[in-house]
Amino acid sequence: MSTARLRLQHRRYLLPFRAPVRTAHGVWTHREGLLLRIEDDAGRCGWGECSPLPGWTTETVDAGAEALRELGEWVEERALSRLPAGLACLRGALAAAREPLVVPPEPAALGVAALLPAGREASARLSGLAEAGFRVFKWKVGVGDAADELGWLDELCGRLPPGGRLRLDANGAWERRVAERWLERCAERPVELVEQPVAASPGSAERERRRADDLLRGLAGAFPTPLALDESLAGDGDVARWLGEGWPGFFVLKLSLHAAPEETLAALARAGARVVFSSALETRVGAAHALRRAWAWPGERHALGFGVWPLFAARALDGPVAAPFLRREDVAALDLEEAWNALA
Q: Which one from 10, 31, 167, 254 is the annotated catalytic residue?
C-alpha cells in the first residue's frame, strides 16, 4: 500500500479458550488483543493483530488501544513509523496489515508439533495424537512438582510412537538445580529440545537478566540436549543480542510479538540459526502472517509450534484444525476478513 493516507480501524477482543491453558505462568482462560484493518484510497484492505503476551513483554493491550485512538481513523502513512519502540506488537501488526498475505508455493506442507496439556493427563492425550499421525509433541512442564513431572516424563517417553520426539517447555520456571536434574534425565531420552528452562521476568533489573542469561549459557554448554530461547526473545532486539553472543541452541519465534520480523528473520538466516516458528495463542490473523513467514524461511525446517487449534470458542477466529502436517493451501485459505467481521 503506497498511499500516504490510510483508513485505520481496530477492534478489541477478549476471547475465551475452549479449554484453559496451564503453563508455569499460571492458568489462562482467555486471550486478549486487537485486530486492525487498514484500507488505502484504492480500496485495498489488510489486517493485522496486536496481541501482547503476558509473561513475555511489558507491552499491554491498553497501551496499544490508546496509541490507536491517538492516531485516529484517518492517518498519514508516515505517522505509523513514529510509534514508540515499546509498542513492538502494535508496530508489527501495522506493518503486517500493509503487506500482501501471499504464502509461497513451496513447500507443499510443513510438520506440526502437537501441544500436550500440562500434568499427567498429557500421557493419555499423547496416545490419541500419535494415532492421528503426530510425531513431535510439546509438553508444558514447570507447572507442578518437579519430582512428579520427572516421573511422568518416563511415562510419556514410553508412549511415543516410533521416531517420536518430545519438546519440553518450562516457561522459565526452573531454578538451576531443578534445570540440571531435568537436563540430566533428558540426555538419555528422545527429547528434541528444552524451551526456556530459566528466565528473568519482564521488566526485571539488568542484574537479574544477566544472571538468567549466564545460567542459560552455562546449561547449554553443560548438557547435550539443545536448549531453546522463548521468553528471552521478547522482541527483535533480543534476537540480535543472542545472535551476537553466538547462542548455540534454538530460537523459538512468536512473530506476533516482533516489530520487524522480516529483518529479524533475515539476520537469523544469515547466521544459519535453528528456528522454530511458534504460536503466541493469537487469532488466525496474527497466525496467518507468522505462517506466511514460516513458509518463506530458507533454513532448516523444524516442526511448527502451531498444533494448538481448535483454540477459541469462536471458530471464525481459529486457524486450521491441528494436523500432523499443515498444508500450504490451508494457510492461504485463512479468511482474515471473516475474523474481523466476527468481532463486529
A: 254
Contact 165, 137 (CB under 8 A): yes
Where, residue-wise, is CATH 3.20.20.120 in the chain?
109-336
Catalytic entry in 140, 167, 258, 302: 140
User: So what CATH class is 5-97?
Assistant: alpha beta
0.70 surpassed by pTM: yes
Active site residue 140: yes
Three-class HEC string of 38-51: EECCCCCEEEEEEC
User: In angstroms, rounded to a whole number, what is the distance separating the alpha carbons of residues 250 and 253?
Assistant: 9
Domain 109-336 class in CATH? alpha beta
Question: Is 254 annotated as catalytic?
Answer: yes
pLDDT digits (tens, 9 = 90+) for 18-66: 999 988 888 999 999 999 999 998 999 999 999 999 878 889 999 999 9
In tens, the pLDDT along 126-155 reads 999 999 999 999 999 999 999 999 999 999
